[in-house]
Amino acid sequence: MSQTANLNPRIIESLYVEGLMLSDEVRAAFDPSRRMLAGPDPAAAIALSCEALRTTTRMMHAVAWLLNHRAYLRGEISEFQLRRHGRIAVSLPASEAGRMALLPASMQELIGATERFYARLVRLDTGWRERALPVPGAPAIQRLRDRLARSAG
Questions:
Q1: Roughly how many angstroms between the first and final C-alpha of the chain, as a whole number?
Q2: Structure-derived torsion over alpha carbons of residues 14, 20, 24, 27, reported in degrees to the nearest 10
Q3: Would the N or C end of the chain have less CB density within 10 A of its end CB?
Q4: Are the CB atoms for 110 and 34 separated by under 8 Å?
C-alpha cells in the first residue's frame, strides 16, 4: 500500500469528519419541513428543490470517495480496487447563479461551502492519480520494480 504526501490517514480522517459535519448541515438545511422557507414564490421553491438535490448529491459523492480512501488506508481494499472504483466525479453540475439568488443567504453560503469542499477532494484525487501514472516509455520491468519498491515502502 503506497501513500502519497497528501493522502495519508490523518488527512483523510480529518476530511471525513469535515464531510460528515457538512453533510449533517446540508441535511438540516434542506429538511422538507424547512422547505417553506422558500415562501410562496414557485420559482424559489423550484430553486430550493434543485439546489437541495445538487448539494446532497455532491455530498454523497464526497462521503463515498472518503469512505473508499479510508478503506484503502486501513487495508480493506487494494490500490487497484481504489483506482478502479474510488474515482470522484469531476463533472458534477455547479449551482446555477439565477437559482442561487432566490435562496436565503445562509443556504447560499452552505452550498458554496459544499462546492469548495468537493473541489478540494477533486484536486486531491486528480493529484493522487497523476503521481501514480507510469513513466511513458519506461520498460515494463522497470514499472514493476517501481511498484514493488513503493509497496515495500
A1: 8
A2: 140
A3: C
A4: no
Distance between CA atoms of residues 61 and 92, nearest Å = 9
Q: What percent of the chain has pLDDT over 70?
A: 86
* Grid coordinates of 24: 449533517
What pLDDT sits at residue 144? 76
CA–CA separation, 79 vs 131, rounded Å? 13
Segment 108-117 shows an average pLDDT of 96
Query: Nine-digit cell at 144?
Result: 514493476
Query: Is the pLDDT confidence value at 38 over 60?
Result: no
Cell of 36: 417553506
- CA nearest 82: which of 94, 97, 71, 98? 71
Residue with cell 458534477: 92
Closest among 63, 58, 59, 67 to 92, alpha carbons compared: 58
- What phi, psi does 49 have (nearest 5°)? -65, -45
* Backbone phi, psi, residue 91, to 5°: -115, 35
User: Looking at domain 9-152, which of 1.10.8.930, 3.90.1150.10, 3.40.50.2300, 1.10.510.10 is its CATH number?
Assistant: 1.10.8.930
Tell me the three cell numbers of residue 86: 474510488
